[in-house]
């Protein structure tokens, strides 16, 4: 059974050029003392402060041969690559549709260089008009290696419960494309303390801000009835669904006790979080512990959880050699193996790759 990485990012060369040409976040800049390129992408780095130094960025982000080398080092057979955050969200509306088209063509061509080893989630021009977004969604299935789309939580700037997204959900459902929903915006940095948590590096926004952002975005989709309207819409949640597997019970209980929702008739005939988790949501296995992985499997089912690495993010802090295995990856492999009993090898193989091959049709 192949090993498949469904959570693995790229910044193609043309996107790197874009980041290098910018002077506001997101951007890439070479700063003293090393003068090597550093990336500033997160809202918590905006505006850059005197203590904010970004993070190193190198060819592992844009040179696809490095992705393949990383796959070989970790025995990964197939990767479904996606543009990393913040995708095309920051582009002026007038540039977004053309940029998405160029980028997606580029991703498809990149996959073609390694037939059978690479597939992709396309990027959407979320700052363009709904018509242009829908048009790109409808164009993607014509491309050999595209298997869905990657999307952040901002939607058309008002979040994913925005009714203006109806046509987008309808197009995704109609074309049978999986939405890979990924965080970027986190929480307002004030929640991390007077300095925005800077004294703790990137720990708070990445460990907590990202998963909570995903949890809130999916909860808003659920509450606004997205899955009541689009019952065939499939969404793959990054980081094992944020905290949704743990909080789904509390979410459902709060819904069942909400007088406003009752008065507005919103409690009748609604699909619950449990139903959505078992039928519409796929969870990646990027949660770094057996405890979180077991929760993901418990709520979604072992056949709906999919291995991922988050490459090229979370590299080892000290490099010991090109062929060194990454701690962030071995931790997730171990969590998957430990979450299942000795007689459950089939489930392990499913999470490691079988589920992805089946659900994302990874055959050429
Ligand atoms: O470390 C990070 O900033 C990130 C990021 O931005 N996106 C991602 O997918 N993983 C880690």
Automatic annotation (TrEMBL):
GO terms for biological process: secondary metabolic process. It comes from the Eukaryota. GO terms for molecular function: carboxy-lyase activity; hydrolase activity. Residues 36-57 are annotated as: Disordered. Residues 4-362 form the Amidohydrolase-related domain. InterPro entries: ACMSD, Amidohydro-rel, Metal_Hydrolase. Pfam families: Amidohydro_2 (PF04909). Keywords: Decarboxylase, Hydrolase, Lyase. One of its GO terms (cellular component) is cytosol. Belongs to the metallo-dependent hydrolases superfamily. This is Amidohydrolase 2.
């Amino acid at each position: 059974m192949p090993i498949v990485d469904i959570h693995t990012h790229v910044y193609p060369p043309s996107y790197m050029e874009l980041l290098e040409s910018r002077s506001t976040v997101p951007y890439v800049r070479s700063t003293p003392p090393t003068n090597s390129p550093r990336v500033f992408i997160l809202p918590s780095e905006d505006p850059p402060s005197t203590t904010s130094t970004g993070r190193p960025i190198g060819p592992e982000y844009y040179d696809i041969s490095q992705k393949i080398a990383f796959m070989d080092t970790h025995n990964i057979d197939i990767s479904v690559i996606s543009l990393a955050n913040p995708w095309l969200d920051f582009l002026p509306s007038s540039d977004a549709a053309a940029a998405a088209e160029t980028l997606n063509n580029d991703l498809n061509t990149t996959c073609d260089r390694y037939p059978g080893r690479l597939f992709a989630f396309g990027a959407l021009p979320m700052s363009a008009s709904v018509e242009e977004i829908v048009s790109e969604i409808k164009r993607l299935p014509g491309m050999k290696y595209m298997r869905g789309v990657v999307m952040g939580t901002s939607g058309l700037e008002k979040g994913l419960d925005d009714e203006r997204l109806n046509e987008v959900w309808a197009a995704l459902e109609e074309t049978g494309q999986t939405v890979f929903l990924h965080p970027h915006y986190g929480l307002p940095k004030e929640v991390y303390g007077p300095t925005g948590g800077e004294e703790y590096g990137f720990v708070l926004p990445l460990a907590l801000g990202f998963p909570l952002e995903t949890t809130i975005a999916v909860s808003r989709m659920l509450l606004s009835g997205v899955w009541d309207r689009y019952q065939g819409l499939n969404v793959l949640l990054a980081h094992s669904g944020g905290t949704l597997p743990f909080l789904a019970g509390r979410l459902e209980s709060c819904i069942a006790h909400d007088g406003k929702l009752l008065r507005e008739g919103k409690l009748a005939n609604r699909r619950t979080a449990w139903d959505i988790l078992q039928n519409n949501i796929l969870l990646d296995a990027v949660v770094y512990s057996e405890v979180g992985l077991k929760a993901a499997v418990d709520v979604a089912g072992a056949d709906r959880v999919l291995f991922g690495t988050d490459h090229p993010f979370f590299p080892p802090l000290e490099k010991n050699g090109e062929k060194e295995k990454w701690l962030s990856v071995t931790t997730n492999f171990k969590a998957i193996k430990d979450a299942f009993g000795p007689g459950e090898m089939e489930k392990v193989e499913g999470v490691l790759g079988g589920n992805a091959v089946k659900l994302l049709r990874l055959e050429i």
